[in-house]
Amino acid sequence: MARQEMKKYFDEVMVQMDYIDVLINGATLCDERNIDATINTNLTGMMNTVATVLPYMDRKMGGSGGLIVNVTSVIGLDPSPVFCAYSASKFGVIGFTRSLADPLYYTQNGVAVMAVCCGPTKVFVDRELNAFLEYGQTFADRLRCAPCQSTASCGQNIVTAIERSENGQIWIADKGGLEMVTLHWYWHMADQFLSYMQSTDDDNQEQFVSGRR
Fold it and tell me: What keyword terms does UniProt attach to this protein (predicted)?
């Protein structure tokens, strides 16, 4: 659905509602033979939905704040050699979630953002799945009979994560349990660069630029 169509839909919804408290993005597709559909469903569609709904939730735009929940996968945290396109799309969800949860936004719009990474779940694995490359197809076929959590168990842990969550948190819901992810930063801004980005003083910015020449 295009963003213009989404806005029209939510405009109609808001006629019947005073505000939006929670937005849950749960659509998912694993089709390694259709990369465009996989990326559009798991990442692009989710981002367009968030971009469309955020103005209705933004405190500075008349909203009441709230919570955005992105339901994603454990292979958005660790790579999958079998479902490469699916994994890439889920890594994107984590990156988008962490970026949007930054205090730069949260302190102004009052909208918290979190993600829940689900482990293998029966409703997902109980169907034909194709590997990105034929070398992984044996693994994909075996996955249908692999022990995994029930849909009900996973759903309950998603609810629990929502009840416990704070802005920016990432959770794993797997094997009937719930675990909060310890986030890691690989790149740290240089002090001079960070000072420049946070500065509102034109002189300081000019000094930074001249110092690079």
Answer: Oxidoreductase
